[in-house]
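Tutorial, part two.
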Amino acid sequence: MRLPYAIAVALIFAVSAVLSLVGAGLAVSKIEDASEMAVRRALDLQGHDWAEVQSDGLRVVLTGTAPNEAIRFNALTAAGTEVDTSRVIDEMEVEPTANLAPPKFSAEILRNDSGISLIGLIPTSEDRDALMARLESLDSDVPVSDLMETADYPAPKGWDDALDFAIKALSDLPRAKISASPGLVRITAIADSQNEKERLEQDLSRAAPPGLRIGLAISAPRPVITPFTLRYLINEDGGQFDACSAQDEDARDQIIEAAQNAGHTGPYSCTIGLGVPSPNWATAAQLSIQALSQLGYGTVTLSDADITLVAAQNTDPALFDRVVGELETALPDVFVLHGVLPEPETEEQSGPVEFTATRSPEGLVQLRGRLGDESLRNMVDSFAQAAFGSEQVYLATRVVDDLPADWSVRVLAGLDALSQLHNGALTVTPEMVELTGISHDPDAKARITGQLSEQLGDAQDFNLSITYVAPPEPEDALPDPEQCEEQIADIQTSSKIAFEPGSATIAADSRDTVNRIADILRECGPIRLEIQGHTDSQGREEMNQQLSQARAQSILNELRGRRIPTSSYTAVGYGETQPIADNDTEEGREENRRIEFTLIRPEPTTQTETGLEALEAGSEEAEAEPSDTDAPDTDAEEQ
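Running the prediction step on this input gives:
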């Protein structure tokens, strides 16, 4: 029986549809399997065995938990190399971050004339208001800029000590940059003088807590020398400098070499400073010293661009004329030479035309000799009382006629110079101003030389014999920490601190040594000291370290028991890690078993620009930008 046409067509279509569905299903399964295998292979090659791959039609679904975000992204990239990235479905998770390392806390404080700026990252627990109040209390007239960020992590060890010391140090430093981080403070500052620099370094070293490392970079600017002065003389004792100035190290070396070639063999001091009148200063000084050497005896004085060459009496006039002529020709253009050849002495003397002044170590001043008129006498008396004290001056001068026109200038200039000495004597004659005495200032001779050169004028001769004597130490002055360290080392050289075998108990015969060390430390005051314990290499390393720590702590406790302030001391055991002798011999092991007292010294630090400085520099540039009506300003404020 034939099926109706319509039924046959429907049946054919049904069979075709079933066959198509079966074929499509097989094709999809084949594609899914191929995609899954390819992606799985790519992930395994990249080490992502934690990832799961599932095929869903043309889509590839990635699941699993990645260790971190970077690895998750790497897995996505690996899957995208095998199938189109639009077919990759990311259902991966990332492990929750745990035990994150805390951020590096630090604070940078910049202080200058325009204010105080604070930038950095500090713990949230830090009392920010109290911190700003401490900074504002340093100088109520300048603003304090708070540019800090915070992080909610506990303050690390050493952070509080570092920040507290940084603010204390800032109180003595009007221009400074201080960087504080846990356990470390770096200080960059400018001092007014070399003495101030040394004082600051010592005070900061003493004040720092013992467990805090500090780095100091304190600089003293070069002094401004006015007038720029050099004075060199040659007499029977050889050559010597009364004053020496140079603009840099090369110029100083050139001048010193010329002096040594002229016979100078003793110590010298040549100040490097600002204010040189010409880049050819060293050349002019060299030529002048060489000319003086050819004359044999005399003095040469350079005051800015003026040069005064004074020969000794009885110098051959022909030699003097030749040397002066050659020097005038050789000098750089800016320099002016004044040559002085003193008149020979004659036997006829009309009595000493002179003025004298003496100052005793107690400060008493006596003025004797000749003055030109009553007004000059009153002027000298008033000047002396103002310079030395009204109760200290005894005036015994007389008024005479026919004195040189510049007599008053010479007398007053000499008295001004005498006032800068601890004690001394001044003699003024028509030909010479002579000053002898003692000063507690090492720069007094150079300073007085410059002043007399400027006040007396060109072609005027003077003679200085000033001896530097260090001022007596104040009765309450603390000894230098370096001396304390050396004295303790000397004691231990002859009498070592020993302990009972295998224990931290001090041997009975070593207690006198501890007493002597305590006496030194009592006089030294609050120095930063590390008491170090060391052992030999016998026994286990861990036990040796513990024993050395216990012995160092035992010494610290003994000092406390002797009422020594030990707040700035710390005890550290180094075990067997720092031997000073061979541990293979009994003598070497005995040397290695020791206690050392070592100063905690500042660390060297380099000056690098920080974020705070860059921010300040940017603000200065913004302030320096000219307006439409103002002329551009080319000066930049020094930071």
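The radius of gyration is 42 Å. In part three we will examine how such features are distributed along the chain.
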